[in-house]
Specification:
This protein is α/β, with parallel strands linked by helices and 332 residues long. 33% of the residues lie in helices and 23% in strands. The strands form four sheets. Strands 1-7-6-4-5 form a five-stranded mixed β-sheet, sandwiched between helices. The structure holds coenzyme A.
Length: 332
């Protein structure tokens, strides 16, 4: 079977920076609390009214340009997001038009913070079967569109951003090796946006009750995330006859620096093998893993052949892990 490889990476972060000091003016919080509990110092935020498809467009363009691939060559677009431009049509369709990727079909997937890892796995199947040779996979979210700036327990945690990767058949042994995903739907009550779907359609009442925003029980999500980062990572490694110390890079979903550090310690990894950019971006939901890959490339920490583990936990609950050997990409 063919192996699918990430052959390019693109990213887009909005220019506007929202610091913890900016949040102090909006809710009853402070820089020290946010930094010590989450690691976050600032996050990027869009100008109000900027849709997710615009962030996707910029990340996708960078990804394709770096590889010298024209939008016309893209065969499939998968967008992972929980903040689509609209409930329908899919943001992938809006992006296909904006990007002028005339030959591509596409769809969105909703798996919250595991969205990118799931989308990557799905895209890889089309490459591995030989059905497609160029698949664009994006993780993108405009979290500021669904944050309640009266709720200090959630609004300080998130930011906006988009990441894109191109999947192509690998010319060698590098590329995506294996994945292990899980869902525990009983966790839906701990992290969700209550209204706006078919269960609670938008009404004056849902707006008055502020139900169109992210709600979460942070402490429960925290414990689940630490446990699952470790369990899922070990399961995937063991299945492939590998031990954590053989990893070159651990790229975890950026939700809280304490979650990442706790998982790092339990896996017995040194900090030098762990990517962190949450300090500057906050939790960008589906975008964190491709943005973290971009950070690793900035820091020259990803070399061809590097054994890399991507791990995520998100609303659902969703758990995702992908094991790959890095293929080498153009990066400036
Ligand atoms: C949200 C999170 C940072 C809270 O950290 P915590 O150590 O669990 O803190 P707690 O929720 O126990 O709150 C401690 C106190 O800080 C207060 N607090 C909460 N948010 C605050 C803020 N932004 N500023 C100041 N104080 C705050 C709480 O009200 C609470 O006060 P109390 O003790 O008087 O009731 C943490 O639970 C977390 O990161 N959870 C996972 C979130 C996540 O990853 N979500 C996305 C999933 S992928």
């Amino acid at each position: 079977m063919l192996r699918a490889a990430i052959t390019s990476v693109g990213r887009y972060l909005p220019e506007r920076v929202m610091t913890n000091a900016d949040l102090e003016k909006i809710v009853n919080t402070n820089d020290e609390w946010i930094k010590s509990r989450t690691g976050i110092e600032e996050r990027r935020v869009v100008e109000p009214g900027t849709p997710t498809s615009e962030l996707c467009l910029r990340a996708a363009r960078q990804c394709l340009e770096l590889r010298g691939v024209s939008p016309d060559e893209v065969e499939l677009i998968i967008v992972a997001t929980i903040t689509p431009d609209m409930t329908f049509p899919a943001t992938a369709c809006i992006l296909q038009d904006k990007l002028k990727a005339h030959r591509a079909w596409g769809f969105d997937i909703s798996a919250a913070c595991s969205g990118f890892v799931y989308a990557l796995t799905m895209g890889a199947q089309f490459v591995q079967t030989g059905a497609h040779r160029k698949v664009l996979v994006l993780g993108a979210d405009v979290m500021t569109a669904i944050l309640d700036y009266q709720d200090r327990t959630t609004c300080v945690l998130f930011g906006d951003g988009a990441g894109a990767v191109l999947l192509e058949p690998s010319p060698d042994d590098n590329g995506i090796i294996d994945f292990a995903h899980e869902v525990d739907g009983s966790g839906a009550c701990y992290l969700n946006m209550p209204a706006g779907g078919s269960l609670r359609p938008a009404s004056h009442e849902t707006v008055d009750r502020r139900e169109h925003f992210v709600r979460q029980e942070g402490a429960h999500v925290f414990k689940y995330a630490v446990r699952k980062f470790v369990e899922a990572s070990l399961r995937l490694l063991e299945r492939n006859g590998l031990r954590p110390e053989q990893l070159d890079l651990f790229v975890a979903h950026q939700a809280n620096i304490r979650i990442i550090d706790a998982a790092r310690d339990r896996l017995g990894l040194p900090d030098s093998k762990v990517v962190k950019n949450i300090q500057r971006t906050g939790n960008t939901t589906a975008a964190t893993i491709p943005l973290a890959l971009a950070t690793a490339l900035d820091e020259k920490r990803l070399k061809k052949g590097d054994l890399t583990l991507l791990t995520s936990v998100g609303a659902g609950f969703t758990v995702g892990t992908v094991l790959l050997r890095w293929s080498g990409v153009n990066w400036s």
